[in-house]
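Weekly puzzle thread! Below is a chain. First person to post its structure in C-alpha cell form gets bragging rights.
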Amino acid sequence: MPEGDTVWRVARRLREALAGRPLTRCDLRTPRLATVDLTGREVLDVVPRGKHLLTRFEGGLTLHSHLRMDGAWQIYAPAERWRGGPAHQIRAILGTTEHTAVGYRLPVLDLLRTPDESRVVGHLGPDLLGPDWDPAQALGRLLSAPERPLGEALLDQRNLAGIGNVYKCELCFLLRASPWTPVGRLPRPERMPALAKKLLEANKHRPARTTTPWGQRPAPFGGRGAARSDRRLWVYGRAGRSCLRCGTAIRSADEAPASEERVTYWCPACQPDRPNAPPTD
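Winning reply:
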C-alpha cells in the first residue's frame, strides 16, 4: 500500500500535469459517477491528505481518491501509449490538452463538494507532510491509548496520517522497540512523531525509499547496485537476513495472512521480544 511520501509525490505529479488547465476529457468509470462530466472545469489543485488524494475543480467540486493496495495514477503525454494496466482496470480519466491522468484500480473514487472534504478526511490525525502537522497533537493521540501496541498505534491514521507498514516497521526498529510494546511504555515517546516526520520528509523526493545511511549514497561506478538496494531499509522485507546493525536474523510475523501489507518485520536483538508477540516464521 502506498504510504504518505508516495501519495505526496503522486499529488505533485498530478498537480504539475493538470492544475491551472480546463479538462478536455473526463471519464469516471464507477457506477455512481458514470454520468458525471467535469469537462470544461479548471483543475484548481491536487492535495494529498495522509494517504488520500483530493483533486479540486472550479465550481466547488472535489474528486476524492485513495490508492489502497495497488491503485495508481499515471500521467501520459497526448501521443504516449498507456501502460498502467489493461483497460478494464481504468477507473478514471482526466485529460487536458497537454496531459492525461489515468487512474488504475482505484478502490475509492468519490465526487463531493469541496467544503465537504472533511467528510472523507476529517477523521485523520495531523498529516506528516501537510500544513496541519502538529507533533504535540500527534503525540497526544498516540498516547491516548497507552496499552495499545506501538505498531498498531503508528498505523492508525487517526493518530497521525501517512504511516504505512513499511514506516511502521522501520520506526519501531529505529526506536529500538518491539512493535508489540505498549505505546505508553516507550521511553521518550516524543521521539515517535519527530522521527516519523524526519523519515517521510527525507523520502518524499526519492523514488526509492530508504531509512539507512547506506541507501542514501549513490551506487559506486561499476555496479553493486543490487547489494546497495538490499541495504535501503533496516528490517522491512528482510526476514531471515542479517540485521544491518547487529547481524541477528530479522524475523517476521504475518498479522493478516491474506495481505503482505500486514507482515511485521523486526530484529529480536535490537528490539527485544515481548511475551505477547505473535508466532514468528
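Puzzle host: Confirmed. Bonus trivia for everyone else. The longest strand covers residues 43-49.
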